[in-house]
Amino acid sequence: MDTSKDKKHHYNLTVAWTGNKGEGTQNYRTYERSHTVFIDNKADILCSSDPSFRGDKTKHNPEELFLASLSGCHMLWFLHLCSVAGITVVEYTDKATGTMIENSNGSGYFEEVTLKPQVVITDISMIEKANELHHEANKYCFIANSCNFPVKHESVCTVKND
User: Fold this and answer.
1) 115 and 95 in contact (C-beta within 8 Å)?
2) Cβ-based burial of 130 (10 A; exposed 0-12, middle 13-18, buried ≥19)
3) pLDDT tens string 43-57
């Protein structure tokens, strides 16, 4: 593989634990799982662990953000490919789902993610091509290409009613 034309992109952020209630991690129950993601010039993201792991259900958790990253990356590639192919997308909604396995030792992993894009386009003759572009988008998605499990797609494409 010729890497002379490959580009490296670097990302920086800060994750700060905000859950010290005064005693630190002296006991599994004495601290909150709250943390904040800081990225320069962007809104802070208030996070916690999943409520199953003593987290705050009102805050985003890493597993949800991971699923959102997969869904968002796929969407952005799909919209790009549609634009290049002359397909006008006017609505895009994805109700993505993911399944994580928690092992008996407390470790875990995602075994599967299913993206369920609901896409609305303007030209009925482009429905088949739009559906094909989901497969192409999956080939390009940076996040999906970094996963060691299948990212499935159950897409539905319809035409805008005037």
Assistant:
1) no
2) buried
3) 999 999 999 899 899
pLDDT score recorded for residue 41: 96
Rounded Cα distance, 136 and 77, in Å: 9
Strand order in the sheet with 117-121: 89-94, 117-121, 156-159
Predicted structure pTM score: 0.88
Task: Report how far residue 123's alpha carbon sits from residue 146's, in angstroms, rounded to the nearest whole number.
Answer: 33
